[in-house]
Amino acid sequence: MLVIPVKSSCTIHTIKKALIPYLGKIVKIKYNLGRNKYETYEAKIIKLYNCVFLIELKENKAVKSFSYTDIITKTIKIYE
Fold first, then answer.
1. How many domains does the structure of the chain reveal?
2. 12 in any annotated domain
3. Mean pLDDT by groups of 10 residues along the chain of 80 residues
């Protein structure tokens, strides 16, 4: 699982730095849709931008984007 620093020192910059080693690697992403609904993706992190990062899904090569605040608020979780 992606190691996230302590909540008080957790910023977008620290999340982006933590994602750099995963760039180009296949990861599992668990996306919380709310009301006990989840989507799970196997995807490759393809690009890191200032506020968002892009993933490419393994099964159909679709590209999705997520923001770093999704990780801070635990809307998504990233596993190796």
1. 1
2. no
3. 67 91 94 95 96 96 95 91
Is residue 33 in some structural domain?
yes
Return d(Cα 20, Cα 70) in angstroms, integer.
16
Domain limits for position 75:
24-79
Identify the pLDDT of residue 8: 61
CATH code at position 56 = 2.30.30.100
In a domain, 2, yes or no: no
Sorted by sequence, the CB contacts under 8 Å of residue 56 that are 6+ apart come out as 43, 44, 46, 62, 63
51 — alpha (psi -120 to 50), left (phi > 0) or beta?
A: alpha
- Paired with 64 in beta bridges are 55
The predicted structure's pLDDT at residue 2: 75
Report d(CA 36, CA 38) in Å as an integer. 7
Number of C-alpha atoms within 13 angstroms, CB side, residue 65?
8
